[in-house]
Specification:
8% strand; 69% helix; mainly alpha
Length: 195
Amino acid sequence: MDVILGILRPLVSLNTFLLRFGRNIAWVAMALMVLIIMLQVIFRYVLGNALAWPDEGARFLMLWMTAVIAPTAYRWGGFVSIEMVKDLLPLRLGAFLGLVLLLISLAVLVYGFQLGLNHIKSGWLFNSSSLKLPLEFLGMGLVRIKLAWMYMSLPAGLFLMILVNIELCLKSIAHLIDPKADLPDDHDRVIVAVE
C-alpha cells in the first residue's frame, strides 16, 4: 500500500495542477469563442459582410477547450456512467469491477492517443483555409496556420485523460487492498448538492 500511495500522492498533485491550468484555459477559450461568434453575427447580419475566419477560429478554440476540460470531467465523474451494478456488489468486488473498466478505458485512451499523434503528422501538410497570423510587423506577412495545431488538441486531451485514468486505477487498486483507505484527493473538486 505504501508503494501505491508513494506513486499516487505526486500523481494527484500533478493532475490537480495540470487540470486547474486546463480549466483556466478552457474558460478563456470559451469566452474568446463567444466573442468571435458574436463578431461574425454582427459582420454577417448587421454589416452584411461576413468574415472568412471566425467559424474556423471558433472551431479551433472549441477543440482545445474540450481537450483541456474533458480530463477534469473524467476525474470528477462527469461522464455518463452506470454505477448501479458496481454499487450492488460488495466493496472489494465493486472496486475490482471498477478497476477492470478503468483498464479497458486506459487501453482505449492509449489507442486514441496513438491515432491522434498519427493524425498530427498529416496536419503539417495542410494549412488552415482561413486562419492566418498577421505578422507584417515582423516582416513575415500573413502566415497561414497549419492544421496540426488544431489536431494537437486530440492527443493533448487524451494524454491528460491517461494521467487521470492512471490515478483512478491506482485508487481502485488501493481500494481493493483496503476498501476504507484514506487516499489523496483533488482539493479543487466542487461538489454541488442537487435537491
